[in-house]
Amino acid sequence: MIPPNYEQSTTNNEQRPKIKDLRPNGLINVTTRIDIFKQMLVNDPVNTTILFGLAKEYEKLGADPDLIETLDRYIELSDDEGNAFGMLARAYERTGQRDKAKDAYQRGITAAVAHGHPGMADEYRMTLSTDYED
Fold this sequence. Notes:
It contains six helices and two strands, in the order E-E-H-H-H-H-H-H. It starts with 5 loop residues before the first strand and ends with a helix. The chain is mainly α. The longest helix is centred in the C-terminal third of the chain and has 17 residues, at 98-114. Helix 3 (64-77) runs antiparallel to helix 4 (83-94) and helix 5 runs antiparallel to helix 6. 63% of the residues lie in helices and 4% in strands. A hairpin with a 6-residue loop joins strand 1 and strand 2.
């Protein structure tokens, strides 16, 4: 029996807490979207659009270890413009991995500059100068 406020995963036998979607109808929840993205990756494991979508769902859920793992795969396969590095850095911060967060911000600056996103690069530089001053 599945406890109240839990649901059965569609891809395995896990029971996960229900997390309401922010949409007014509430028909699709975060864990269902995660399961959908995972199933899509079974058929297309190197699709960076799907990986980024899955990462965004993990971010909403606050599942930082899964977020980090997914973003690492995404970054390995894509030419990210900087956004994923910021997401990765913040996940590392939340898990207490400051050295990895600092490195992710630095890599994000490089990517943002290379892709013509000076505002993003400046934001990451400011974070490094205020939060990572040695």
